[in-house]
Amino acid sequence: MKYLFLALVLVCISCNSEGTNKATQQTPLSSTKIVGSWELSETKISPGSPVEWTAAEDTNTYQFELDGNYTYTNNGDKRLDHQGTYRVKDDELLLTYSSEVEEVKKATYRMTLSNAELILDYVGCTEECRLKYKRKAE
Fold first, then answer.
1. Is the pTM of this model over 0.90?
2. Could you give the CA distance from residue 22 to residue 52 in angstroms, rounded to a whole number?
């Protein structure tokens, strides 16, 4: 019985109290973890069949601020540049914004944050719609 108790204590102590998964190096999702500048590096957009990650042809950048505001810069079409607010809820990134070509709009992405990569998976897309961003050096 005392060996069982000792084994249980050792298992509890060995658990990762930081809340990160060491196998995948995923960071717990929070607003403060995405603060900074992120540039689109790869896309995985499925037309209905399996696809692989491909290098992004037109890049864009998100700049997330600590105060909950963000700026989006589209290097292909400046009319799509906009500013708005963001919120992280569980594993979702919620954006509210307007641009030159769109009135107030809301977008929701499933978010995966690991090391220096931010993967956004558009909620509502019937096929795979994933965008991979790399953290830009400040």
1. no
2. 25
